[in-house]
Design goal:
By secondary structure, the chain is mainly alpha-helical. It contains eleven helices and two strands, in the order H-H-H-H-H-H-H-H-H-H-H-E-E. It has a two-stranded antiparallel ribbon.
Protein backbone atom coordinates (compact mmCIF):
# COMPACT_ATOMS: atom_id res chain seq x y z
CA UNK A 1 0.00 0.00 0.00
CA UNK A 2 2.80 2.40 0.89
CA UNK A 3 4.53 1.75 -2.44
CA UNK A 4 1.37 2.40 -4.46
CA UNK A 5 0.68 5.67 -2.63
CA UNK A 6 4.26 6.79 -3.16
CA UNK A 7 4.22 6.00 -6.88
CA UNK A 8 0.88 7.73 -7.43
CA UNK A 9 1.83 10.87 -5.53
CA UNK A 10 5.25 11.11 -7.17
CA UNK A 11 3.59 11.20 -10.58
CA UNK A 12 1.22 13.89 -9.36
CA UNK A 13 3.98 16.02 -7.83
CA UNK A 14 6.00 15.90 -11.05
CA UNK A 15 3.16 17.63 -12.87
CA UNK A 16 2.40 20.26 -10.24
CA UNK A 17 4.89 22.21 -8.17
CA UNK A 18 4.07 22.35 -4.44
CA UNK A 19 5.96 23.15 -1.31
CA UNK A 20 6.92 20.27 0.95
CA UNK A 21 4.24 20.95 3.62
CA UNK A 22 1.65 21.27 0.85
CA UNK A 23 2.71 17.89 -0.56
CA UNK A 24 2.19 16.30 2.86
CA UNK A 25 -1.29 17.83 3.16
CA UNK A 26 -2.33 16.66 -0.31
CA UNK A 27 -1.04 13.12 0.29
CA UNK A 28 -2.70 12.82 3.70
CA UNK A 29 -5.96 14.11 2.24
CA UNK A 30 -5.99 11.13 -0.14
CA UNK A 31 -5.46 8.52 2.58
CA UNK A 32 -8.29 6.01 2.98
CA UNK A 33 -9.03 3.05 5.23
CA UNK A 34 -5.93 1.70 6.94
CA UNK A 35 -3.75 4.58 5.75
CA UNK A 36 -6.17 7.18 7.16
CA UNK A 37 -6.34 5.36 10.50
CA UNK A 38 -2.54 5.15 10.64
CA UNK A 39 -2.17 8.87 10.02
CA UNK A 40 -4.64 9.78 12.81
CA UNK A 41 -2.72 7.52 15.21
CA UNK A 42 0.57 9.12 14.17
CA UNK A 43 -0.79 12.65 14.78
CA UNK A 44 -1.97 11.60 18.25
CA UNK A 45 1.45 10.16 19.12
CA UNK A 46 3.24 13.26 17.83
CA UNK A 47 1.05 15.44 20.07
CA UNK A 48 1.21 13.11 23.09
CA UNK A 49 4.88 12.16 23.05
CA UNK A 50 6.25 15.32 21.47
CA UNK A 51 7.53 13.46 18.42
CA UNK A 52 9.00 15.43 15.47
CA UNK A 53 6.37 16.50 13.00
CA UNK A 54 6.24 15.20 9.45
CA UNK A 55 6.86 18.29 7.34
CA UNK A 56 8.25 16.97 4.04
CA UNK A 57 7.20 14.42 1.49
CA UNK A 58 10.39 12.41 2.06
CA UNK A 59 9.68 12.19 5.80
CA UNK A 60 6.14 11.01 5.10
CA UNK A 61 7.25 8.27 2.74
CA UNK A 62 9.88 7.09 5.27
CA UNK A 63 7.26 6.89 8.01
CA UNK A 64 4.88 4.94 5.76
CA UNK A 65 7.63 2.48 4.87
CA UNK A 66 8.35 1.89 8.55
CA UNK A 67 4.68 1.32 9.35
CA UNK A 68 3.54 -0.77 6.39
CA UNK A 69 6.62 -2.51 5.05
CA UNK A 70 7.91 -5.55 6.91
CA UNK A 71 11.46 -5.82 8.15
CA UNK A 72 12.34 -8.41 5.47
CA UNK A 73 10.60 -6.60 2.63
CA UNK A 74 13.65 -4.67 1.47
CA UNK A 75 15.77 -7.81 1.50
CA UNK A 76 13.13 -9.84 -0.39
CA UNK A 77 12.81 -7.18 -3.06
CA UNK A 78 16.56 -7.07 -3.60
CA UNK A 79 16.71 -10.86 -3.92
CA UNK A 80 13.95 -10.78 -6.55
CA UNK A 81 15.81 -8.05 -8.41
CA UNK A 82 19.03 -10.05 -8.33
CA UNK A 83 17.36 -13.21 -9.67
CA UNK A 84 15.12 -11.51 -12.24
CA UNK A 85 15.36 -12.85 -15.80
CA UNK A 86 13.19 -12.47 -18.89
CA UNK A 87 11.92 -16.05 -18.88
CA UNK A 88 8.58 -16.30 -20.68
CA UNK A 89 8.02 -12.54 -20.57
CA UNK A 90 8.34 -10.25 -23.53
CA UNK A 91 11.18 -7.73 -23.58
CA UNK A 92 8.80 -4.91 -22.64
CA UNK A 93 7.33 -6.86 -19.70
CA UNK A 94 10.80 -7.78 -18.46
CA UNK A 95 12.01 -4.16 -18.67
CA UNK A 96 8.98 -2.86 -16.74
CA UNK A 97 9.41 -5.46 -13.98
CA UNK A 98 13.10 -4.60 -13.72
CA UNK A 99 12.29 -0.92 -13.22
CA UNK A 100 9.58 -1.65 -10.66
CA UNK A 101 11.85 -3.84 -8.54
CA UNK A 102 14.67 -1.31 -8.79
CA UNK A 103 12.33 1.40 -7.52
CA UNK A 104 10.99 -0.75 -4.67
CA UNK A 105 14.50 -1.75 -3.64
CA UNK A 106 15.53 1.94 -3.74
CA UNK A 107 18.62 1.12 -5.76
CA UNK A 108 20.34 3.95 -7.58
CA UNK A 109 22.65 2.81 -10.41
CA UNK A 110 24.48 4.56 -13.22
CA UNK A 111 23.53 3.85 -16.83
CA UNK A 112 26.25 1.26 -17.43
CA UNK A 113 25.11 -0.76 -14.41
CA UNK A 114 21.51 -0.63 -15.64
CA UNK A 115 22.52 -1.86 -19.09
CA UNK A 116 24.54 -4.71 -17.60
CA UNK A 117 21.63 -5.77 -15.36
CA UNK A 118 19.17 -5.58 -18.27
CA UNK A 119 21.43 -7.57 -20.63
CA UNK A 120 22.14 -10.25 -18.03
CA UNK A 121 18.45 -11.12 -17.66
CA UNK A 122 17.59 -11.24 -21.38
CA UNK A 123 17.16 -14.48 -23.29
CA UNK A 124 20.45 -15.83 -24.62
CA UNK A 125 19.39 -15.54 -28.28
CA UNK A 126 18.61 -11.83 -27.86
CA UNK A 127 21.55 -11.09 -25.57
CA UNK A 128 23.97 -12.64 -28.06
CA UNK A 129 22.93 -10.20 -30.81
CA UNK A 130 22.96 -7.13 -28.55
CA UNK A 131 26.26 -7.78 -26.78
CA UNK A 132 28.18 -6.96 -29.98
CA UNK A 133 27.14 -3.29 -29.94
CA UNK A 134 27.46 -0.29 -27.63
CA UNK A 135 24.46 1.84 -26.70
CA UNK A 136 24.42 5.38 -25.29
CA UNK A 137 21.83 4.56 -22.61
CA UNK A 138 19.61 1.77 -21.32
CA UNK A 139 16.56 3.03 -23.22
CA UNK A 140 18.34 2.71 -26.57
CA UNK A 141 19.33 -0.81 -25.55
CA UNK A 142 15.72 -1.60 -24.64
CA UNK A 143 14.38 -0.38 -28.01
CA UNK A 144 16.94 -2.43 -29.93
CA UNK A 145 16.03 -5.52 -27.88
CA UNK A 146 12.36 -5.08 -28.82
CA UNK A 147 13.29 -4.91 -32.52
CA UNK A 148 15.41 -8.08 -32.30
CA UNK A 149 12.58 -9.90 -30.53
CA UNK A 150 10.05 -8.93 -33.22
CA UNK A 151 12.41 -10.13 -35.98
CA UNK A 152 12.87 -13.48 -34.26
CA UNK A 153 9.10 -13.93 -33.87
CA UNK A 154 8.50 -13.18 -37.56
CA UNK A 155 11.25 -15.61 -38.62
CA UNK A 156 9.83 -18.38 -36.44
CA UNK A 157 6.31 -17.77 -37.79
CA UNK A 158 7.49 -17.93 -41.42
CA UNK A 159 9.26 -21.26 -40.76
CA UNK A 160 6.14 -22.76 -39.22
CA UNK A 161 4.00 -21.61 -42.15
CA UNK A 162 6.44 -23.09 -44.68
CA UNK A 163 6.67 -26.44 -42.86
CA UNK A 164 2.86 -26.73 -42.76
CA UNK A 165 2.54 -26.00 -46.48
CA UNK A 166 5.13 -28.68 -47.30
CA UNK A 167 3.86 -31.38 -44.93
CA UNK A 168 0.19 -30.97 -45.85
CA UNK A 169 -0.30 -30.81 -49.67
CA UNK A 170 -3.66 -29.60 -50.89
CA UNK A 171 -6.02 -31.71 -52.97
CA UNK A 172 -4.94 -29.91 -56.15
CA UNK A 173 -1.29 -30.77 -55.54
CA UNK A 174 -1.86 -34.31 -54.26
CA UNK A 175 0.51 -36.65 -56.08
CA UNK A 176 -1.04 -39.37 -58.18
CA UNK A 177 -0.40 -43.02 -57.34
CA UNK A 178 2.65 -44.65 -58.82
CA UNK A 179 0.75 -46.88 -61.23
CA UNK A 180 -1.06 -43.88 -62.75
CA UNK A 181 2.25 -42.20 -63.44
CA UNK A 182 3.86 -45.22 -65.06
CA UNK A 183 0.89 -46.73 -66.89
CA UNK A 184 1.29 -44.60 -70.03
CA UNK A 185 5.07 -44.32 -69.82
CA UNK A 186 6.75 -46.38 -72.60
CA UNK A 187 9.71 -47.06 -70.33
CA UNK A 188 7.62 -49.27 -68.07
CA UNK A 189 5.90 -51.24 -70.89
CA UNK A 190 6.91 -54.69 -72.06
CA UNK A 191 8.37 -55.11 -75.57
CA UNK A 192 5.43 -57.10 -76.94
CA UNK A 193 3.03 -54.37 -75.78
CA UNK A 194 5.01 -51.74 -77.65
CA UNK A 195 4.98 -53.84 -80.86
CA UNK A 196 1.25 -54.40 -80.54
CA UNK A 197 0.60 -50.69 -80.20
CA UNK A 198 2.83 -49.87 -83.15
CA UNK A 199 1.02 -52.33 -85.42
CA UNK A 200 -2.41 -51.11 -84.36
CA UNK A 201 -1.64 -47.41 -84.90
CA UNK A 202 -3.50 -45.63 -87.63
CA UNK A 203 -7.00 -46.23 -88.91
CA UNK A 204 -8.35 -49.39 -87.29
CA UNK A 205 -11.23 -49.55 -89.81
CA UNK A 206 -8.88 -50.48 -92.68
CA UNK A 207 -8.70 -54.24 -93.31
CA UNK A 208 -5.61 -55.92 -94.76
CA UNK A 209 -5.70 -56.24 -98.59
CA UNK A 210 -5.09 -59.78 -99.96
CA UNK A 211 -3.94 -60.15 -103.58
CA UNK A 212 -6.00 -62.45 -105.81
CA UNK A 213 -2.83 -64.21 -106.95
CA UNK A 214 -2.36 -65.40 -103.41
CA UNK A 215 -5.80 -67.07 -103.22
CA UNK A 216 -5.73 -70.84 -103.87
CA UNK A 217 -8.77 -72.93 -104.65
CA UNK A 218 -8.75 -76.19 -102.68
CA UNK A 219 -11.13 -77.82 -105.20
CA UNK A 220 -9.23 -77.45 -108.44
CA UNK A 221 -5.93 -76.21 -107.11
CA UNK A 222 -6.27 -73.11 -109.19
CA UNK A 223 -5.54 -69.56 -108.12
CA UNK A 224 -7.55 -66.36 -108.11
CA UNK A 225 -10.77 -67.74 -106.61
CA UNK A 226 -12.15 -69.67 -103.67
CA UNK A 227 -13.58 -73.21 -103.75
CA UNK A 228 -17.17 -71.97 -103.27
CA UNK A 229 -16.99 -69.96 -106.47
CA UNK A 230 -14.85 -72.41 -108.45
CA UNK A 231 -15.81 -72.32 -112.18
CA UNK A 232 -14.13 -75.68 -112.88
CA UNK A 233 -16.40 -78.73 -112.44
CA UNK A 234 -13.55 -81.18 -112.46
CA UNK A 235 -12.67 -82.86 -109.21
CA UNK A 236 -9.71 -84.86 -108.06
CA UNK A 237 -10.31 -88.65 -108.04
CA UNK A 238 -8.08 -90.82 -105.95
CA UNK A 239 -7.74 -94.40 -107.24
CA UNK A 240 -5.89 -97.25 -105.68
CA UNK A 241 -2.83 -96.93 -107.91
CA UNK A 242 -3.14 -93.48 -109.51
CA UNK A 243 -4.62 -90.05 -109.16
CA UNK A 244 -6.73 -88.71 -111.98
CA UNK A 245 -9.16 -85.92 -112.52
CA UNK A 246 -12.63 -86.31 -113.96
CA UNK A 247 -15.91 -84.62 -114.17
CA UNK A 248 -18.55 -85.29 -111.58
CA UNK A 249 -20.63 -87.39 -113.99
CA UNK A 250 -17.76 -89.71 -114.89
CA UNK A 251 -17.18 -91.05 -111.46
CA UNK A 252 -18.25 -94.71 -111.32
CA UNK A 253 -19.81 -96.41 -108.42
CA UNK A 254 -16.87 -98.70 -107.86
CA UNK A 255 -14.37 -95.90 -107.61
CA UNK A 256 -13.58 -94.01 -104.53
CA UNK A 257 -13.73 -90.28 -105.15
CA UNK A 258 -12.77 -87.60 -102.81
CA UNK A 259 -13.77 -84.02 -103.45
CA UNK A 260 -11.36 -81.61 -101.86
CA UNK A 261 -13.14 -78.63 -100.63
CA UNK A 262 -12.20 -75.81 -98.35
Amino acid sequence: MSIMITITMNKYFKIFSYTEPRKVDIAVGNFKGTAANWWRELERNMATFALPEVLTWEQLTRSMDTAFISVTYDRDVKIKLQQLTQGSRSVAEYFNELNNLSFKAKITEDDNAKQARFLFGLKQSIRHQLSLFNFPNVFELFQKAVIVEEQMVEKCFSKQTFSKSVSKPTSSTKPAPFFKKTYNNPIFKKPFELKTQETTKGDSSKKPVVKTSQIECFKCRGRGHYALSCPNNRVMVIKEDDVDSASEGDISKGEEAVEVTA
